[in-house]
Design brief:
about 325 residues; Peroxisomal Thiolase, Chain A, domain 1; five-stranded mixed sheet
């Protein structure tokens, strides 16, 4: 069986830096309040109107291609993970395909929120193993800054998120010792309303009303305590599960690249798994939660730092749905 491998990773974040102190100027909050609860000091927001996640994905894809030694003509398919698409339809993958100049190849959008990149990685892995495609762009891209409520009512959610994109070129591994060793995916819809946007919804007639807007139902709603409780249980669980599939142990892991939702969550998960702090990638302090983009951004920064060369990497994510996932990749 052919083995899939991440041949190159790249990322892009907007140039506009928004600090906790900047947010404190527009709603009741503070740098201390935000940092103590999340580990976030700043995040990036799009610079102006008209920038969507597919726009952020373009430079991330070009960087991933450059690092992979592949070119655009080598790409057979696109998988785009996002919860903040350029439009309700068509999918952001189609917008990205057009911007990259790749007509004709399939473009698949997936909506698995914080677990989206690992879900996409699993699809690319299966496509490559079966010979359906040879080189797949797996992208996570988000523009959150236009979709959160910067008021006292919305601050618990608004302070957490940032804009950005990450991309990976997933192709056939020439070295049987390298590649995607295992991916595990899970979901439990019993927690769907613990982190969601209630409106608009196709089941409503009309889908949105002035009353719904006045209630703030168009903004993300989160039961933070429940999300935290599930995350610190499911991320270590799926990490152990995916390691068991490979026959590896925590001692074999060189780097842990978790989803960046909350630094406290990641420190708890690393502690539960006995992963030393120096092996854990954190970038939430600078970027906030970029949802589907956090793991590829973490991988891209680790690539730039030289930390991926020859490394066995564990990754885990948990998010809205609920969904959670884990992966082991040997670079």
């Amino acid at each position: 069986m052919r083995r899939a491998h991440i041949l190159g990773v790249g990322h892009y974040v907007p140039s506009k830096v928004v600090t906790n102190d900047d947010l404190a100027k527009i709603m009741p909050t503070s740098d201390e309040w935000i940092f103590q609860r999340s580990g976030i000091k700043e995040r990036r927001f799009i610079e102006h109107d008209g920038i969507g996640p597919s726009d952020l994905a373009v430079p991330a894809c070009h960087q991933a291609l450059e690092r992979s030694g592949r070119s655009l003509k080598d790409i057979d398919a696109i998988i785009f993970a996002t919860l903040s698409p350029d439009a309700d339809f068509p999918g952001s993958g189609c917008f990205l395909q057009r911007k990259l100049g790749l007509p004709g190849i399939p473009a698949l959008d997936i909506r698995n929120q914080c677990s989206g990149f690992l879900y996409g990685l699993s699809i690319a892995n299966a496509w490559i193993q079966t010979g359906a495609y040879d080189n797949v762009l797996v992208v996570g891209g988000e523009v959150h800054s236009t979709g959160v409520e910067f008021t006292e009512r919305g601050r618990n959610v608004a302070v957490l998120f940032g804009d950005g994109a990450g991309a990976a070129v997933v192709g056939v591994s020439d070295d049987p010792g390298k590649g995607i060793l295992a991916v595990k995916l899970h979901a439990d819809g019993s927690g769907a309303e613990d982190l969601w946007i209630p409106a608009p919804r196709s089941g409503y007639m009309p889908r949105i009303t002035h009353e719904m807007l006045d209630e703030g139902l168009q903004w993300p709603q989160m039961n933070g305590k429940q999300v935290f409780r599930w995350a610190v249980e499911k991320m270590p669980e799926v990490a152990r599960e995916v390691l068991a599939d490979t026959g590896l142990t925590i001692a074999d892991i060189d780097l842990f690249v978790p989803h960046q939702a909350n630094r406290r969550i990641n420190e708890f998960v690393a502690g539960a798994l006995d992963i030393p702090a120096e092996k854990v990638v954190h970038n939430i302090e600078r970027f906030g939660n970029t949802t589907a983009a956090t793991i590829p951004i973490g991988l891209s920064e680790s690539w730039a730092d030289g930390r991926l060369k020859g490394a066995t990497v564990l990754s885990a994510a948990f998010g809205s749905g609920y969904t959670w996932a884990g992966a082991v990749i040997r670079f």
